[in-house]
């Protein structure tokens, strides 16, 4: 095995203590590894780094290039086997985090790997930007770094139904690069990342040239501050009452730039409005990135379906045809998604320059399916819990030994579960499907890939309409073909 370029969890945690500035309300947080709003989730990410390089996983999570061993998501794929390796790496990261870390460390590097497969697109903006992409991928790969992205301008800057108020913009240049100021949204996992990718996936208007800039910046760069939403981890009571929110709260942050200097070698697009969006959709970037999202979702779905089956079992309802139907629908959904994931790889697309990418149609169908179905799936499984969550005692102190605990055990037990097991199961299900944390996840699944109407449009843009229309035309032609007129006519 070549030289191993894979970070240890402890080194990752040490790198987070880099003077970054995070606003939690008015409080300024500089160390997420010790703060109660973030420290458990930081540990969850560190654990992924350690699991990835462990002997039982390393062959499934990494690849070798130039005598060095790197994380699979930095690999620009050249074959179906490469895609399979990348897929298994995504799947394992998701499995280790119950599909709850949407922007895990394998997400944004997959975008960058996809973009590096078409550097000439960037060079058309400015000679050297293509090399900047390749070098940036290498920088992330060599350090096994974690990058997030913020690719939305604030709503007031979009000029959808009124004049645009440019917020984030280029404010100047200096000898070595450019200077930017303003606000970008929305950096999921930003507080746990080394780097942020800044751009706009939303189309900019032709006059928004001063906002047309894409670059990368270290999270601790002078002039950068992250403003985070309320922390679920900080409000989690215990590992039992809040199993997921206490350790998988990836956080979402707005990034504020105050005259931040960006060196030219980290700039990928400058004053080029079409390239701002083309870099995602005219390279395999968006597809490779969202392939990770599909695998992440599939692991979460398996967990949700497991909860559905156990809830029905606890309630003694598994034998009912109506309940079996519900479970059957959930199972069919899971199989549909897994089928779409396989098809993305089996029917991958070969590019003339020797690279391959996942099949676009199956990718966008899966993305649309996940975004449109998660809230209904969560609702259906929550219904199976019935009043279960509300007949449970107030908190997990009931699990301690003592007279009250004995009363609890004898009255709350089920034929297939002790009262304590039942308590732990119900709390777990509630945290995942109905808590504040669960509400954020419902919104996340709806929006992480863009607003709901765009989810449908991806498939509209990628469908072979000409072929479909030809099928219709063939029949119309056949109707008027003289040789085929019915004898009776
Ligand atoms: C939990 C969470 C995490 C996220 N993480 C990230 C991240 O890591 N990085 C990142 O860059 N972004 C992230 N996003 C942002 C996400 O990409 C946006 O939420 C999404 O693009 C929608 O933009 P918006 O929120 O500004 O909604 P808006 O564009 O303001 O839309 C609001 C509502 O209006 C509807 N709407 C708007 N325009 C139209 C139209 N033309 N036709 C029909 N309906 C319309 C939308 O569908 C939506 O329901 C995240 C979002 C969420 C909720």
**CATH C-level class of the largest domain:** Mainly Beta
Categorize the overall geometry: globular
Percent of sequence in beta strands: 5-15%
Q: How many DSSP E strands?
A: 15
User: pLDDT under 50 segments (min length 5)?
Assistant: none
CATH architecture of the largest domain: Beta Barrel
Name the strands of the widest sheet in spatial order: 3-2-11-12-8-7
Largest sheet: 6 strands, mixed
Q: Report Rg.
A: 25 Å
Query: What ligands are attached or bound here?
Result: flavin-adenine dinucleotide
Q: Tell me the count of domains.
A: 2
CATH topology of the largest domain: Butyryl-CoA Dehydrogenase, subunit A, domain 2
- Helix run count: 18
- Please state the average pLDDT score: 95
Give the helix level as a range of percent.
40-55%
- Quote the distance from N terminus to C terminus: 77 Å
Structural class, judged by helices and strands? alpha+beta
Describe the protein.
There is one protein chain. The longest helix has 30 residues, at 285-314. The protein is globular and about 75 Å long. The protein has two domains: 3-281, Beta Barrel (Butyryl-CoA Dehydrogenase, subunit A, domain 2); 285-385 and 434-469, Butyryl-CoA Dehydrogenase, subunit A, domain 3. α5 (108-115) runs antiparallel to α7 (129-143) and α15 packs across α16. Helices cover 48% and strands 14% of the residues. It has 489 residues and is of the alpha+beta class. The model has no long low-confidence stretch (mean pLDDT 95). The protein has a six-stranded mixed beta sheet with strand order 3-2-11-12-8-7, with no helix packed on it. It starts with a strand and ends in a 9-residue tail after the last helix. The relative contact order is 0.10. The protein has helices spanning 9-16, 39-53, 58-61, 80-96, 108-115, 120-123, 129-143, 232-235, 273-281, 285-314, 321-346, 360-384, 388-391, 403-412, 419-433, 436-447, 452-462, 465-480; strands spanning 3-4, 22-24, 27-29, 62-65, 68-71, 147-150, 169-174, 177-184, 195-198, 213-218, 224-228, 253-263, 267-270, 349-350, 356-357. A hairpin with a 2-residue loop joins β4 and β5 (68-71). Residues 103, 149-152, 155, 186-188, 252, 440, 443-444, 447-448, 450-453 line the site of flavin-adenine dinucleotide (FAD). Residues 103, 149-152, 155, 186-188, 252, 440, 443-444, 447-448, 450-453 line the site of flavin-adenine dinucleotide.
